[in-house]
């Protein structure tokens, strides 16, 4: 039991450092813009670039690496991740920084996919939803501690020190991985064609769009969270750090609620979630005129962001275990892959809206994607219900 707790902590730590690195840009947008004499909207595209590279590279590298020992693969991915952050720390131009972020993005998705595969391997069935929700909470903790800490360090000591903090935590994480995780984990060997057979399942093809449009909706405004707080809602820099921490707590609450949902109604609860998300985002232009009401609204929308994580992750794993066991690692990666497609889509959309219509209109832009997510989950739930009925009738 003690070993399981230690291993669970290590998996959460992996998610934390990956999330810290990925989300850090949101908190230091203004400082990077000032350093490289680049508009904030342009610096915001670092989020888009990272997410696109993350999403496109993850399935290919995951398929290649899943043939080998997953313990060694995880260590190699974390090593390259650390190198990418060292390059960010050393960046002398905006282009250099963008290239360093590409290096980091190439392996971040594979690392969390392997971490989630380890979670499925070490957790008893009764603990799966719990552990998955905590691994995803690692990203939320990164937004609670990492983003405000990175913003504080950047504001007081320079943005390079923020990346140095990520590097140090990454080295500690690699040491914990080496000392605690099982070294014998391999999945059933299969050809590339055998692994991608997972995509022949219509449930998978529809399901993987859900995290994409969920985060597309959120990242229309989340990419510009710092300027929204300081410019639109007119809070001070000191209050900014506090609010980022509070919003991170909201994210953690959402992740833990996600674990509970996966043990109960699962994806059947998501239509209510996306309806709520849509309504809150449509209110943003009116509510953003009032500082504290705007902050409360942001808290509530951010709370909805991770609710889909555990239900959709369990859905992917269950489909793979039942029908495509050779594709377990690939199935583990789908949530993070398509979440990052969503981040890319949302941050790019946010950039267009901010450039042409201003910060106040990011909410309605995100609401369109929340509506699409609602329609997708309604369709997926109907599809899953029919599939269960047909299986029972055959039995």
From TrEMBL:
Any matching Pfam family: MFS_1
PROSITE patterns documented for this protein: MFS
Subcellular location: Cell membrane
Transmembrane in keyword set: yes
Record domain Major facilitator superfamily (MFS) profile: where: 7-385
InterPro entries documented for this protein: MFS (IPR011701), MFS_dom (IPR020846), MFS_Efflux_Transporters (IPR050189), MFS_trans_sf (IPR036259)
Gene3D superfamilies, per the entry: MFS general substrate transporter like domains (1.20.1250.20)
Major site of localization recorded for this protein: membrane
Alphabetical UniProt keywords: Cell membrane, Membrane, Transmembrane, Transmembrane helix, Transport
Membrane topology qualifier: Multi-pass membrane protein
Transmembrane segments: 9-29, 41-65, 72-96, 102-123, 130-153, 159-182, 203-225, 237-257, 269-288, 294-316, 328-354, 366-384
Keyword match Iron-sulfur: no
Annotated CDD domains: MFS_NepI_like
Superkingdom of origin: Bacteria
Name of the protein in its database record: MFS transporter
Source organism of the structure: Lentilactobacillus fungorum
């Amino acid at each position: 039991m003690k070993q399981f707790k230690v291993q669970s902590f290590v998996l959460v730590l992996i998610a934390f450092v990956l999330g810290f690195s990925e989300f850090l840009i949101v908190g230091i947008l203004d400082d990077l813009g000032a350093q490289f004499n680049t508009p904030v909207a342009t610096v915001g595209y670092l989020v888009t670039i990272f997410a696109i590279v993350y999403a496109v590279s993850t399935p290919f590298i995951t398929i290649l690496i899943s043939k080998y020992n997953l313990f060694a693969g995880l260590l190699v991915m974390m090593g390259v991740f650390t190198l990418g952050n060292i390059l960010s720390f050393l960046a002398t131009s905006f282009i250099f920084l963008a290239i360093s972020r590409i290096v980091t993005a190439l392996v971040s998705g594979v690392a969390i996919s392997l971490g989630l595969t380890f979670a499925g391997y070490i957790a008893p069935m009764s603990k799966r939803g719990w552990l998955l929700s905590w691994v995803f909470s690692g990203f939320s903790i990164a937004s609670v501690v990492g983003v405000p800490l990175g913003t504080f360090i950047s504001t007081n000591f320079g943005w390079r020190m923020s990346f140095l903090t990520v590097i140090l935590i990454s080295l500690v994480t690699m040491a914990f991985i080496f000392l605690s995780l099982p070294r014998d984990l391999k999945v059933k060997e299969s050809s590339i064609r055998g692994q991608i057979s997972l995509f022949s399942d219509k449930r998978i093809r529809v399901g993987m769009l859900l995290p994409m449009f969920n985060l597309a909706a959120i990242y229309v405004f989340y990419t510009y969270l710092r300027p929204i707080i300081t410019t639109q809602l007119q809070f001070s820099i000191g209050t900014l750090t506090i609010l980022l921490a509070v919003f991170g707590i909201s994210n953690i609450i959402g992740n833990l609620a996600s674990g509970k949902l996966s043990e109960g109604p699962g994806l059947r609860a998501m239509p209510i979630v996306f309806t709520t998300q849509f309504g809150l985002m449509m209110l943003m232009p009116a509510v953003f005129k009032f500082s504290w009401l705007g902050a409360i609204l942001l808290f509530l929308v951010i709370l909805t962001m991770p609710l889909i994580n555990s239900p959709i992750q369990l859905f992917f794993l269950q489909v793979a275990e039942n029908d495509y066991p050779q594709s377990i690692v690939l199935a583990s990666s789908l949530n993070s892959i398509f979440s990052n497609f969503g981040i890319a889509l949302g941050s790019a959309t946010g950039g267009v809206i901010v450039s042409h219509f201003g910060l106040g209109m990011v909410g309605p832009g995100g609401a369109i994607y929340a509506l699409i997510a609602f329609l997708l989950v309604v369709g997926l739930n109907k599809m899953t219900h029919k599939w269960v009925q047909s299986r029972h009738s055959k039995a």
